[in-house]
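Board notes (copied after class):
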Amino acid sequence: MSVRIELQYLPSLDYFACLLKYGEIALETQEHFVKQTYRNRCHILAANGVDTLIVPVIHSAPKMPIREVKIDYSQGWVRRHWGAIVAAYGKAPYFEYFGSDFERVYLKKPTYLFDLNWELLTICLKLLRQKPTIRLTEVFETSLPEGYFDALSQISPKNPSGHNIFSKPVVYQQNFGTEFVPNLSILDLLMCQGADATRLLKQSVKVE
């Protein structure tokens, strides 16, 4: 089975469970940018609770092709995001091993949102030691061939709390709080669990 899905910013565990579940990933490159989605936002766990990080983008047209969406660096979001990540995970067990990999991407300041998300996804998969078959789409298809599951926009901030499509919660030790917070950005699992992140992620994948 294969799946079509969009690129997201430092995606959730549900997103990575999807990538592990399907044999081939059709990564959508021909869609229009959709506001208020995980394409440009993620959730991390900070000292005061869940923190939402949003990458500001420049809107020059109502329906912008995702590959043409530029990041707005006038808002100083890089300092905000990296500062929040360091505050949340700087003392986590595996930050010293993984942190610099992510910092390099922020320092590069990619022009386009798609490129930022792609670089971050590549790092996450490398740290998870996973090599799924990923194909970048060349045309936007309104209906998919047999054998494909369409997950486009299904992992959404608008979904009810706890509504995960591809994963079930697997509790692990987090950096803050005593009550477990599920389905955060993959950053949380990587920084807190390191080499054990892959095992825990595989345990979370829903089996039908």
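Comment from the instructor: The longest strand covers residues 41-46. The helical segments are 13-21, 77-89, 95-108, 113-127, 186-193, 197-204.
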